[in-house]
Amino acid sequence: MTMTVLVLWDIDHTLIDTSGVGSEIYAAAFQQVTGQPLKKMASLSGRTEPVIFRETLRSHDIDDAPADLFSRFAEAQARGYVERAGELRERGRVLPGVPEALRALSEEGDAIQSVLTGNTRPSGEAKLRAFGLNGFFDLDSGAYGTDDDTRANLVGIAQQRAASVHDATFDRASTVLIGDTPNDVIAARDGGALVIAVATGKDSTHDLAAEGADTVFKDLADTDALVRAISRLTAHHDGT
């Protein structure tokens, strides 16, 4: 790579699939803090946890929630991921090519890997730790669902944090977001990052390309192709 590159990974359906365990943990935490069973969860795809929680409350006619309800929910949710880490490993999975991709980028002296996720930091970190992936990431340089309701704004937050940690400047030419949803593509485009989309979630390669992703892969099985794509994108936008 021709410069220091900040690689921001989405977590769910990009790195891992909890295979329903995450939904069960959400439901248990929701019932614990609201006293109501979860009947229907708001759409998750590419959105932040506080937004999902507020919409889910509204769908259950909970309009007078105490101010600390989300923080109590987030604590219960994160605790659920820690307590059910073994079950996550048994029922869930790391997606194809992910360990190899993370390892290859960690060996690139000019690549800093962090996360850009709608998860809270405690839940996101618990998921990564459950699958043995946390060691690849500088989580202090990431951005999380509690940082801003608008996913695009998380890009600038991560860039500022990474700049502070690493004494470097990160802009569109030196930031690559890797995600699996159109909302990830939009966040990168509007927030100031390049974007590589992987069709490992619900959206097809066609859908992700149509939204404007710079590069689209079916999955991350081809490690060399991913590393080349990051190098090519950043070199092109750097003008080199």
What's the arrangement of strands in the largest beta sheet? 4-1-5-6-7
Helix percentage = 40-55%
User: Would you state the CATH class of the largest domain?
Assistant: Alpha Beta
Largest sheet: 5 strands, parallel
SSE succession: EEHHHHEHEHHEHEHEH
**Beta-strand content bin:** 5-15%
**Domains (count):** 2
Low-pLDDT ranges: none
- In the CATH hierarchy, the architecture of the largest domain is 3-Layer(aba) Sandwich
The tally of strands reads 7
What's the CATH superfamily of the largest domain, by name? HAD superfamily/HAD-like
Which structural class fits the helix and strand makeup?
Answer: alpha/beta
CATH third-tier fold name of the largest domain:
Rossmann fold
- Mean pLDDT across all amino acids: 95
Task: Please tally the helical runs, counting DSSP H or I stretches of 4 or more residues.
Answer: 10
Outline type:
globular
What's the Cα radius of gyration?
18 Å
What's the end-to-end separation, in Å? 11 Å
Describe the structure.
The protein has 2 domains: 159 residues, Rossmann fold; 70 residues. It is 48% helix and 11% strand. Helix 3 packs parallel to helix 6. With 240 residues, the protein is α/β, with parallel strands linked by helices. The termini are close together. Helix 9 links the parallel strand 6 and strand 7. The mean pLDDT is 95. Strands 4-1-5-6-7 form a 5-stranded parallel β-sheet, with helices on both faces. A two-stranded antiparallel sheet has the order 2-3. The longest helix is centred in the middle third of the chain and has 16 residues. The chain is built from 10 helices and 7 strands.
